[in-house]
Amino acid sequence: MSPPVEINDPQLFINRELSWLAFNERVLADACDPELPLYERLKFFAIASSNLDEFFMVRVAGLQQQLANGVAETAADGMLPAEQLAAISERVHRLVDEASRLWVEELRPGLAGAGVSILRRDKLTAEQKAAARMYFTTFVFPALTPLAVDPGHPFPHLRNKSLNVAVLLRREGPKRRRNGAGTSLAVVQVPGLLRRLVPLPAERGLAFILLGELIALCSGDLFPGYVVEHTTAFRVTRNWDLNVDEEESEDLLSTLQEELRRRERGAAVRLELDAVASPHIESLLTAALKLGPMDVYRQWAPLQPSDLMALLDVDPRPELRVEPFTPVVPPVLRDVGSLLDVVAERDILLHHPYESFDPVVRFLEEAAEDPDVLTIKQTLYRTSGDSPIARALSRAVENGKQVAVLVEIKARLDEANNIAWARKMEESGVHVVYGLIGLKTHTKVALVVRREGNGIRRYVHLGTGNYNPQTARQYTDLSLFTSREEMADDVSALFNLLTGYAVAPQWKRLAVAPMGLQEKVLSLIHREADKARRGEPARILAKMNSLVDASVIRALYAASQAGVEVDLLVRGICCLRPGVPGVSERIRVTSVVDRFLEHSRVFAFGAGPSPEVWMSSADWMPRNFLRRIEAMFPVEDPAIRQRLLDEVLGVALRDNVKARRLRVDGTYVPVSPEGTLVRSQGVLMEMARRTHQPDLKPLEVLRHATAPDAPPLRQVPQATG
User: Fold this and answer.
1) Which of the following CATH numbers is that of domain 512-715: 3.30.160.390, 3.30.870.10, 1.10.260.100, 3.90.1150.10?
2) How far is CA 2 from the centre of its chain?
3) 0.85 exceeded by the pTM?
C-alpha cells in the first residue's frame, strides 16, 4: 500500500477568489438557461452583476490594498496578491464578455420577442427620439449638474457604483483635431432617484430607453456653445471596506458613522465602460481614477442590469416569470393559541422559504405581549428595512419587559441600516449593545424568559439565517425552536458573554466561535477518520455556503485517505480539491444554484442509523471560526434529525437538474441526469404544498415527489463522478 500523499501541498487547494468567481459563473449560467422564464433569467443576469460589485468592493479592493502596502500574504493555494489580481482580471473579463454575449444574443432579443424593447439611442425612430427629448426636457434636465473637467474644475468625486456619462466636447467653430486634441472632458452623473427605464412610444408592446442612454442622447443641451464629439456611460466601483480601530474608539457607533462617510472616498478599484467608448475617453478616465488597463471592463450589456428589474413592475405577464410560491405554516403551528406552549412540549424545525418565517416573528410578537414573559434577548446581524421584529422588541419594552439586543453594526454593507435600527431601538428603551471588541456577532439566536407556575422557563430560537422576513422568502435557511434546559443554559451564558463581563463557560450543548467551534468541527471529522481506520463505517455529510478553512480541508483530506465517505454540498466558495488520487478520492462536492439562494448550514457525522447532526450560523471559513461569534448546535430530537437527513441533505444530494459537481481541476459540470429527474428546490416546494394534506407524512411526500421506487433517503447511495 502506497503511503498517504502529503496534504500541505498548495496545489491541493483552490484559490478562494477564483472559486468565488466560479460560483458567479454558475449564477450567470442560470441566466443562460432557456428553460427558465425570461424574467427569471433576467433576475440571475442582474444578480451576477451585483455579486461582482461586492466582490470588487471588498475582495479585489483588499488585494489591491495589500499590494499597495507591500504585503505578501499567501493563502493555502500559494498565490500572491499580484498573481491573484492578474488571474481575477482575466477571469472577470471572460465573465463580462459572456454576459455581453448573453445580452446581445439572447436576453435583449428574447425581450423584444416578448414585446419589450430596450433601445440604444442610435436605434430610435423619429417619433421615439422626439418623445425621448420631451421626457428629458421635462423630467431629467432640471435634475442634472454638468461637471467640467479642466485645471479649474478637478475631476469630480463619483460615488461608489454610481452611473455616469462622460462627454467629449469641442468649442463650436474650430476645425476638429485628431486623437482627441482640442477636446474637453465633462461628466454628468445619472441621478439615482429618477426612473432608470424611460418609456417610449412603440408600435406594439413596450419600449424603453435607459436613463444613461437618454442623457447621452441629449447631452448637447447641457453644454450650449459646444459640439458633442463622443459620449459614453461609465460606472466606478470603489474600495468599500471599513477601517475601524475598536480598541481606540470611545464611541463605536459614532466612529463607525464617521467611517461610513469616509468610505465614499475610497479608492477606485474598477471602471466599467460601454463597449463603444473611445480609447481617448478610457485613457482620460483611467488617469483620473488612477486605474490600470486590467481594471477596465467594457461591455455591451447595460452597466447596471439591476435597473432592468423595473420591468417586473410594469409587465405583470405570468408566463415571463416563475410561478409564485407562498411559504406554508406547518400543521403543528396552525390554529394554535400559543406558539410558546407548543415549543414547551416539543422542538420545532422550520425550513425556509418552503415553510413560513411568520412563526419566528410571531415568537417574538407573542413574547412581547405575554404578561408572563420577563425578558427577551436577541442578536440582529441583518434585518429588513421595515422590521416587524424590531417593532416587537420595542413593544416589549413598552409592556415593561427587559429587552437586550445585540445589533452588529459592522455587518458588511448593512452598517448604515443597522445603525439606524440601533438608534431607534435605543430611543424606545431597548438595551442595545454592539458586541465584543474585534469580533462580529454573526450567530442568530433569540431567548425568551417566561414565568411559569413557581418557576422560570426559557424558550430559544436558533437559526442559520438572518432575522429578516424579506430574505427569508428568498434564501433557504433553518429555524429551530426549543425549550431544552441545557440548550437554554448555553444560550443564556452566550448572552451574558455578549452583553456583560463573563468568561466563556464550559458549553453543555453549543459549540461557539471563536472559543472552540473550529476545534469541535475538527474533532468530529477526526472521529470519523478514526472509525474508518478501525474498519468501521464512517460518513460525513455537510451543507454550507463556503468551505475555505485550510485546517478543516486538511482534516477532510486525511479522513478521505482513512476511508471516510464525504459528501459536501457547498453552494459558493470551495477551496477543497476533490478527486485527487491518494488524497480526496472519497470526497464529492456539489453546488446547487437555483431559484432560492442556498444558505442553510447542516452537518451530519456518522454512517449508522442515527448519525450526529448539527446546525449552525457558521460556514467553515477562518473568519467564522476566528473573527466572529458563531454557534453550532446539535439536533437532539430524533424526528427532526431524520428530517434534516432525508429532506435538507438527502434531497439536495439527489439533485440532477440544478446541481453541478466540482472537478479536480476546479471547474464545475452539471450532474448527469440519470434516472428520475430531481430538482431539489422543486421537490421541497412540492413537499411544502402537500403538507396541506394531513394524511400524508413528510417522508411519504418526499418519496412520492422524487420517484415511486426511490429508496429511503437515509440510505442515499454514494454519488459517483
Assistant:
1) 3.30.870.10
2) 43
3) yes
